[in-house]
Sequence to fold (86 residues):
Amino acid sequence: MPGTEVKVVERCSGHSSTWGVKKQFHATTMKIGRPVFRAMAEDEPDYISSDCQLAGHHIEQGIAEAGLKHAEMVHPLSLLARAYRL
Fold:
């Protein structure tokens, strides 16, 4: 899509399925994901996206907790649908 810039961050978000939703592991999951949160928010994007819905919400939470600029979390296929006005 013309005019679209995609930044790929290939790193673990720290969520790790059910482990990531357990209260006793929350601080650890946020620490593991911190480099991803920073990298995803670095260029102040309009959207952040992940093919894993749990990871996407974890990244969105990490960005908010770090006080970084909020970007809307949208699944990659939904972004394509928006781009093509489907």
